[in-house]
Automatic annotation (TrEMBL):
Organism the protein comes from: Tothia fuscella
Taxonomic classification: Eukaryota, Fungi, Dikarya, Ascomycota, Pezizomycotina
Tree of life domain: Eukaryota
Protein's UniProt name: Heterokaryon incompatibility
Heterokaryon incompatibility domain segment(s): 6-151
Annotated coiled-coil segments of the chain: none
A Pfam cross-reference name: HET
Length: 155
């Protein structure tokens, strides 16, 4: 991670097949489909920004390098200017859950800023989100990864 102004990606690799080939600086990388979907979104949202992504930054065929990089994960995520959590491709219900979470965050932050002694927080998920939407969101593969604890705590 020689660039000091980089973002780190927290995500799941997903199944080994299918894969996609991409080119970075004229070098071909074979990546899994979940990362490919992230890169499709990131090329517009994070145009010309550096990312540390394990599938690309670590030579996966070199066990010595892999072990060395795993030992550096804490430093890599802690040194990143931002850790981006990719939960997978968006769908209608995940978009609704994320909108509600952003709203709750904004309302809570405003409440804390407006009064240090009294604030009220609206119902955590509003009345329009269904149990199925929340359940589907909480069961995304991302939440089953043990590594996310370290990645997000160090962010």
């Amino acid at each position: 991670h020689r660039h000091t102004n980089y973002k780190a990606l927290s995500y799941t690799w997903g199944p080994p097949e299918p894969t996609r080939d991409i080119k970075i600086d004229r070098q071909t990388f074979t990546i899994r489909e979940n990362l490919y979907h992230f890169l499709q979104v990131a090329k517009w949202k994070y145009h010309h920004e550096w990312f540390w992504i394990d599938q690309i930054c670590i030579d996966q065929s070199n066990m010595k390098e892999r072990n060395h990089q795993v030992g550096m994960m804490g430093t890599i995520y802690q040194s990143a200017k931002l850790v981006v959590a990719w939960l997978g491709q968006s769908d209608k219900s995940s978009s609704r859950v994320m909108q509600q979470l952003k709203y709750q965050y904004t309302m809570t932050a405003r409440g804390l800023v407006m009064s240090h002694t009294h604030y009220s927080i609206p119902h955590p998920f509003g009345s329009d989100l269904t149990h199925q939407e929340l359940s589907a969101f909480s069961q995304r593969p991302y939440w089953s990864r043990l590594w996310i604890i370290q990645e997000l705590v160090l962010a």
